[in-house]
Every structure is written in structure tokens, then in C-alpha cells.
Amino acid sequence: MKILIACEYSGVVREAFAALGHDAMSCDFLPSEQPGKHYQGDVRDVLYEEWDLMIAHPPCTYLTNAGVRHLHTDPKRWPKLFDAAEFFKLFLNSDHIPMRAIENPIMHKYAKTLIGGVKQSQVVQPWMFGHMEQKATCLWLRGLEPLQPTNNVKEEMMLLPKNQRERLHYLPPSADRWKERSRTPKGIADAMASQWNVC
Ligand SMILES: C[S@@+](CC[C@H](N)C(=O)[O-])C[C@H]1O[C@@H](n2cnc3c(N)ncnc32)[C@H](O)[C@@H]1O
How far is it, in rounded angstroms, from Cα 165 to Cα 77? Predict the structure, then answer.
């Protein structure tokens, strides 16, 4: 299959599909963290090529429920929210790509309204795929079946202290904090590649 991994700098999802023999390309303004087929630039340059499957990770800074409080203290965030919602909808409405998954955290109510009230298809957690961590991730799916958990480690994870199982939430401030938080867990990438290996 020809696969576009939109807004991915880590190469994690791209390499999971490439390992199964697919022609997978990631795209991001940033270079790829690991060697592989990557277009460094605006995803809109390549979005309208022929793809069988797209997995998109659009930025969540202005859409996520975790940041909703800032909207009430910083009016400059509103136009950025409108732009982020439009960008998200670009992937949701890419009907020329028959199979699509768009990933984002739980959205706040304004973002949900701006994307037209289209509900996510499922919510997954890293602990469903072998990672001892919590971070709710929503997937909007078109032409794809919901992901099935591959290795549920919730019971063991719950034995860990909160700051360990919510490691991503408690990461100290740093220039790369957002990168660490947004990198797709390998267990989820592997599940996507093995379960959406449909051609
Ligand atoms: C939330 S991060 C996703 C990271 C991804 N889960 C990974 O493992 O690499 C969103 C990414 O979208 C990229 N991005 C934002 N606008 C873009 C655009 N128009 N074209 C390409 N990439 C874009 C950013 O550079 C950022 O790396």
C-alpha cells in the first residue's frame, strides 16, 4: 500500500508499516528522527497525491482539553484554535484517501464544535498496547476498523505510582517536552501496521 503518515517527525508509524513491506512516507516540517522515506515540508504539498491509507497526527496544542483554560486568559489563542480546527478538518475530509485515521487527544468543547461535532471513532491508551502509561488518544477512522488491544498491561501499570504511569503529564518543562509527549508509542504504531495491513 501507498501510505502517508502526515505530521510525523518520529518515523515510528512510518517504520512500523515499512517493516511490513509497505511504501510508507512520513511528512513533517521537521526532519525525521530516524532514517526512512520522509518529506520535510508542508503536508499540503503531498496530500493530494494517490494514497491508499493516511494516518495523520495534526498539532493538538489549541484543540486539546488539557489546554482549554488558556483560552480564557489569552485571547490570542482563539484565531490559532480556528486555524488548528481547519487543519484537522483537512485530514478528516480528505475523501480522496479511502482509509484514514486522524489522531488527537481528547478535545475541548469549542474544538469539538469547530470540527463539526464529528465524534472520534475510538479512544485508545498506551497500556492497551504494552506500554505502562496513561494518555487518552482519540482516533477518527474512515474506512478502517477500530484498533484492537494487543497487550493490555493496565493491571500492572496501576501498581505504579501516579507520576510514573502519567509520566508524560509530569515531564519537566524543556524545549523538547512537546516532542516527548507527542511521539506515537511503538505498541500503537505496530498495532496500526499489523491490523490495518488490509491490501
Ligand atoms: C503533535 S506532533 C505529532 C508527532 C507525531 N505523533 C510523531 O510521532 O512524530 C504534530 C506535528 O505536526 C507538524 N506539522 C504542523 N503543521 C504541519 C504542516 N502543515 N505540514 C507538515 N507538518 C506539520 C509539526 O511540525 C509537528 O511535528
Answer: 30
Mean pLDDT by 10 residues, the chain (199 residues): 98 98 98 98 98 98 92 93 98 98 97 97 98 96 98 96 87 84 95 90
Closest residue (by CA) to atom 13 of ligand 1?
A: 7
Answer whether 30's CB lies under 8 Å from 54's CB: no
Residue nearest atom 10 in ligand 1 by C-alpha distance: 59
pLDDT tens-digit series, residues 107-119: 999 999 999 999 9
Enumerate residues lining ligand 1, CB below 6 A. 7-10, 12, 27-30, 42-43, 57, 59-60, 182-184
**Ligand 1 atom closest to the CA of 8, numbered from 1:** 9
pLDDT at 180: 83
C-alpha cell at 125: 491508551
pLDDT at position 96? 98
Cβ neighbour number for residue 195 with a 10 Å cutoff: 14
